[in-house]
Amino acid sequence: MEKALILLTKKLLEIYNCKNWWPMKYKTKPKKWEVCVGAILTQNTNWRNVEKALYNLYSAKLLDAKRLARVNISKIRACIKPAGFYIQKAAYLRNLAKLALSFGSVKNFLDSVNREDLLSINGIGQETADTILLYACNKPYFVIGAYTKRILARCLMIKGNYIELQNIFHLSLPKNSGLYKNLHATFVEHGKFVCKKLPKCEECKITKVCNHFLTSNI
DNA sequence: CCCCAGGCCGCGC
DNA sequence: GCGCGGCATGGG
């Protein structure tokens, strides 16, 4: 089972070029705070809509933990409206900002926050927590998303809960955050453009390692 | 008109 | 522990 995963991994990394995949336009200080905010805004939401919300936050000088923690919540809501679910996400951003400041500074937060801390606040589940740990804190937590689940189920016939799927990656691959970022991004790209809900197998370049293709094409 | 998007929470079972 | 409905905007 791990061998099949490694083959799939190699294929994806060979086909997609996903270095520096997480977009960071505004480069707030400290760096990577923008990633934490984006990780919440993108929950079940198209990245295009997230970009609009990030731009609005930046323009309002709200891409900043202290201000997010103290400004009237209606201002946050107005900025992030394009990203959808804006009432609950505004509260989530507030919770994130307060958590970050509880470390004394955002820099300390990025350096020493752990998974449990992140999961303890309302608005951060396992995927968002791992996204922050991986892309903002640079720690080797592999992110499992809807695309990852779908591709694993189709190609490798593997199903499981979040931790089970994550463990497969953690046990099969070297614990390297660079590799995890790159690989997670390839799953997103492949799931978004090729292995969609209705898969485009005729455009797929990894059919050789895909159980779905090999068994449906008899 | 429909469906979907880089999930999470709160609830019932 | 798992499944479900609600949350909301913008693009195809």
Written account of the structure:
With 218 residues, this protein is mainly alpha-helical. It starts with a helix and ends with a helix. The protein has helices spanning 2-15, 33-41, 47-59, 65-70, 73-80, 86-101, 106-112, 115-119, 126-136, 146-156, 162-172, 177-193, 211-216. The longest helix is centred in the C-terminal third of the chain and has 17 residues, at 177-193. The structure holds a DNA duplex (13 and 12 nucleotides).
Task: Give descriptors for this structure.
218 residues; mainly alpha; 61% helix; DNA-binding
Number of helix segments?
A: 13
The Cα radius of gyration reads 18 Å
Level of helix content?
A: 55-70%
Largest sheet: none
Total strand segments: 0
Strand content: under 5%
Q: Structural class, from helix and strand content?
A: mainly alpha
> Which oligomeric form is depicted?
single chain
User: What is the arithmetic mean of pLDDT?
Assistant: 95
* Poorly predicted runs: none
Question: Which shape, going by the Cα principal axes?
Answer: elongated
N→C terminal distance = 23 Å
What is the H/E order? Answer: HHHHHHHHHHHHH
